[in-house]
Specification:
By secondary structure, this protein is α+β, with helices and mostly antiparallel strands. The protein contains 3 helices and 4 strands; from the N terminus they run αβαβαββ. It has helices spanning 3-13, 29-42, 53-67, and strands at residues 20-22, 44-49, 70-75, 78-82. It has a 4-stranded mixed sheet with strand order 1-2-4-3, with helices on both faces. A hairpin with a 2-residue loop joins strand 3 and strand 4 (78-82). The longest helix has 15 residues, at 53-67. The two termini are 19 Å apart.
């Protein structure tokens, strides 16, 4: 994905609220299933990861790998994830 596309998606994500919140239990199969549903519905979502910095990065990477999505931006506990839905 080129820089212009990422910049446009960052601007779109600015007003969004986190759809998925990952807490103490971490990244579970249920959370991944909900993330799949959210990506199919919205394409662009925010995920709030309540963990330490290194663990947040690992969780964001695992989500992107498992769902085939792209990490657009990660600031603090919030990660912006995008996956194109061809059916939309």
């Amino acid at each position: 994905m080129d820089a212009a596309s990422k910049k446009k998606l960052k601007a779109q994500a600015h007003g969004l609220k986190p759809v998925i919140i990952i807490g103490q239990a971490g990244l579970t199969d249920a959370v991944l299933a909900e993330t799949e549903i959210a990506l199919n519905t919205h394409e662009l979502i925010k995920v709030k990861v309540r963990a330490e910095r290194d663990e947040r990065n690992q969780i964001s990477e695992k989500i992107c790998t498992a769902t085939g999505a792209t990490l657009i931006q990660s600031i603090g506990q919030i990660a912006v994830i995008y996956r194109l839905n061809l059916k939309k």
